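User: structure tokens for Foldase protein PrsA, please.
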Amino acid sequence: MQVINRERKMKSSLNIMIIAVLFIVAAIIGLLSMDKKKYVASINGEKISEGELHDELVANYGTDVLQSLVNQKMIEMEIEKENINVPREDIDEEVEKYKEEYGGEAAFKKALEASGMNAADFESNIKDYLALTKLMEKRITITEKEMKSYFKENKDQFEQKEQVTASHILVKDEAAARNVIKKLGEGEDFAALAEKHSTDEMTSEFGGDLGTFGRGEMVKEFEEAVFSMKVGEVSDPVKTEYGYHIIKLNGKTKAKKADYESAKEEIRSTLFESKMNDEVPAWLEEIKEVYDVEYLLDH
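Assistant: Done. Predicted tokens:
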């Protein structure tokens, strides 16, 4: 049951889509290596072989997938040549940023599932992306003038609106809600009770964690309750169209006006990624002259 109506950040959504494309390319490569003698489907006894599927994939996607493979191999060679390493803590930090921008672990996991990826696939692609970023740092320059201009043109997006961080337990009726509150009063753990009793399948396995959100992202009754609470407080049952919620407020952030100094690193990162999208294709064309690339795809 969907309790939240979150507005996803475009940057995170786009990056997960890009990483998912890399994952899909890898999956197609796996399909291209199939045993051509096996069968993949049968219609009224008429069989379709893996060889037929292989040939169709090559005809439709072979050139693009091959180019992706060539690009990836050249990037790997450049990373090795430059002796670039990506520390585990950098990968973890980047993953945590995605979780935060998606509004918590539960929402992030759902986004991954929608893209057809698991956590290991995502982390592997994050590592590759960070290594490529390090390669591009020598080629891309971001000036103070560019950053100030971007801040001026996009000032609204750097304003900090009032936000809260909360967890909840969703149950069907008030009696069940009162029972949960009774257990909390007896000292039972909120997260454990959420995992056991909450009907919100999206958050229950994460102890009811809803992450951080602002006004306008929850149904009205839920929003009014959570924004009136004090940090650490657990609410009485809150009725919404989804059922009855027991809410725990874990944190609160006050609204804050846009400040250039505070936004500089985010602006630098945004401009860098924008320039990187243009720079990588040009760079690949340059290094292609260094490597002996020969295309031998047989259609």
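User: Anything notable?

Assistant: Residues 1-14, 16-21 have pLDDT under 50 and may be disordered.
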